[in-house]
Amino acid sequence: MTLADGQKAAVAMALGAKVLVVTGGPGVGKTTTVNSILRIFSAKHMNLLLCAPTGRAAKRMNEATGLEAKTIHRLLEVDPKGGGFRRDETNPLDCDLLVVDETSMVDVLLMHALLKAVPNKAALLIVGDVDQLPSVGPGQVLADMIASGAIPVVRLTEVFRQAAASRIIVNAHRINQGVIPDLRKPEAQSDFYFVEADDSETAVARIIELVRTRIPRRFGLDPIHDIQVLCPMNRGGVGARSLNIELQAALNPAGERKVERFGWTFAPGDKVMQIENDYDKEVYNGDIGYVADVEPDDGELNASFDGRLVTYGFGDLDTLVPAYAATIHKSQGSEYPAVVIPVMTQNYTMLQRNLLYTGVTRGKRLVVLVGQKKAVAIAVRSVSGRRRWSKLREWLQSPSAGR
């Protein structure tokens, strides 16, 4: 492996520091840096543990490193009945190095539980993009760790030449720097497009056309499995709720074999999302699956999550929603081959830089923004958001104050 100077510094620091944070945007080589660190530790026969906050993030980590990665809940051996964890300071994890990926998603409570289970002998490598949305739960652990100055931090900034050819990556960095992305029509086939729509009716029609016809025809992608619509919010004409109804009708209209519960219709072939952690079924908030069958006589629905069949009683379907469209918040820690994002001024309250940046960085091969240039500009310029008040930064700066 040939490493850039910033990556070499990160590797050297990881080998000498008990705790290290590695942060940076897309295309800056976080994965290569982490892989280099893991290779060196493996060569020294160190015991490595890798984890991430969601199943999809853990799966991505496994694919990127070739090593087993678990969700934090599974690593800590969650107790489905009691709700606590079997791993803690009295029963710590067995490792020499713990790597936590997608740390921007980890809230205070989960990080507290995880760090209690890290043995004193072990080193800790924290990886994530601090400019993404903060965790859904309380706090802003990664941001506070970095802002405290109490922990060594490597911020990778150099976008590598191969990545710089991607308009997704270039525009993501522009958004993050407060610069409006290049919304002009590309001359050749590209991985980033802007489709104008002045009102929500036009936007909905264009999104359906893109997902059902235009993207599959031009890029050879499956409309249900490969394309994800990501919305700034749930409500409104271009919100996830109404777009789910429209996309479900366009992509997978229900036949005779269906069930209607909790305001939604589910039928074989539907893309669905789990919206609560269910430790018994081993499906977690944000996991995406596909309905395999609906059995009205038995009152059961079977859904496949990463090839594993999970059975839901019809009364349990309040934890499942259609997932043709989802909020950007729910997409954290995931990547999709193609992402379509409505950006309309009617979502004014939610148009924030870190929201748009997070949405754009979810797309691997294709990102399409649908809406108004004015709305994109509002999002790029808006950095205030809802501030989070946390004492973690101050406590890290002055440990005695937190005791």
Distance between the termini: 44 Å
Q: What percentage of the residues does DSSP assign to strands (E)? A: 15-25%
* Main beta sheet: 6 strands, parallel
How many distinct beta strands? 18
Derived from helix and strand composition plus strand pairing, the structural class reads alpha/beta
The portion of residues assigned to helices is: 25-40%
Number of helices: 13
Rg value: 22 Å
Instruction: Please state the overall shape, judged from the principal axes of the Cα atoms.
Output: globular
User: Which residue ranges are poorly predicted, with pLDDT under 50 across at least 5 consecutive positions?
Assistant: none
- Please list the strands of the largest sheet in the order they lie side by side: 3-2-4-5-1-6
Would you tell me the overall average pLDDT? 93
Overall description:
The chain has 403 residues and is an alpha/beta fold. Helix content is 32%, strand content 23%. The chain contains 13 helices and 18 strands. The chain has helices at residues 5-16, 30-43, 55-65, 72-75, 108-116, 141-148, 161-164, 167-176, 200-219, 240-251, 353-360, 373-381, 392-397; strands spanning 19-24, 48-52, 69-71, 97-100, 123-128, 153-156, 192-196, 227-231, 259-261, 264-266, 271-274, 288-295, 300-305, 308-313, 320-322, 325-327, 336-343, 363-371. The strands form four sheets. Strands 3-2-4-5-1-6 form a six-stranded parallel β-sheet, sandwiched between helices. Helix 11 (353-360) crosses helix 12 (373-381). The model has no long low-confidence stretch (mean pLDDT 93).
